[in-house]
Design a protein that fits this description.
179 residues; alpha/beta; two-stranded antiparallel ribbon; 5 helices; zinc; cytoplasm; metal-binding; cell wall biogenesis/degradation
Length: 179
């Protein structure tokens, strides 16, 4: 069931429950927003595979790449498709498993205190205008309800392991939209 906060931020979003979440540590405030990119198979858009990965239903026989990731227990709070559609997998108040081993400003375990948003895309292509618009709208709403102090890329909290959202994510443009 969507909470009041989610309804206000996510009008028109689909909700698909992921099993890959748990409770946040007691008393932990949501102070970080983490932006990611994902496409499955890599550099291919529009299919059901990201939803399947985040719900534990990815078939390793459908693509050679899937045999390397189908077993992962990962999720995000939101996924913004290339056409602007928003899919929610985990309630914002719960701990989605998007950041992995991570650290921000000396504080480890970013999943404990962050919201993760995946953009359908890759490190090698620009994102679509509608994705920026949706991300900015959602960011503004989240900042209204949560004490978010920083917005970072996955690469900022796990620089040895991750490169997303990548060099084609226009941080200046996004930050201007959020203002």
């Amino acid at each position: 069931m969507l909470t009041r906060i989610q309804k206000g931020c996510l009008d028109g979003a689909r909700f698909i429950a992921s099993p890959y979440f748990n409770e946040r540590p007691i008393g932990e405030m949501i102070t970080l927003l983490v932006i990611h990119n994902i496409s499955l198979p890599p550099k291919q858009y529009g299919g059901p595979y990201v939803e399947q990965l985040f719900t534990g239903n990815l078939n390793p026989k459908e693509h050679v790449y899937f045999s390397t990731i189908y077993h992962l227990e990962v999720s995000s709070h939101l996924f913004i498709r290339r056409d602007g559609e928003v899919v929610q997998f985990v309630s914002f108040d719960k701990r989605a498993w998007h950041a992995g081993q991570s650290c921000f400003e000396g504080k480890a375990n970013c999943n404990d205190y962050s919201i993760g948003i995946e953009l359908e895309g890759c490190d090698f292509e620009p994102f679509n205008e509608i994705q920026y618009q949706q991300l900015a709208k959602i960011t503004q709403c989240l900042k209204h309800y949560y004490p978010i102090q920083a917005i970072v890329g996955h690469s900022d909290i796990a620089p040895i392991r991750k490169t997303d959202p990548g060099p084609y994510f226009d941080w200046d443009y996004y930050n201007n939209l959020v203002k």
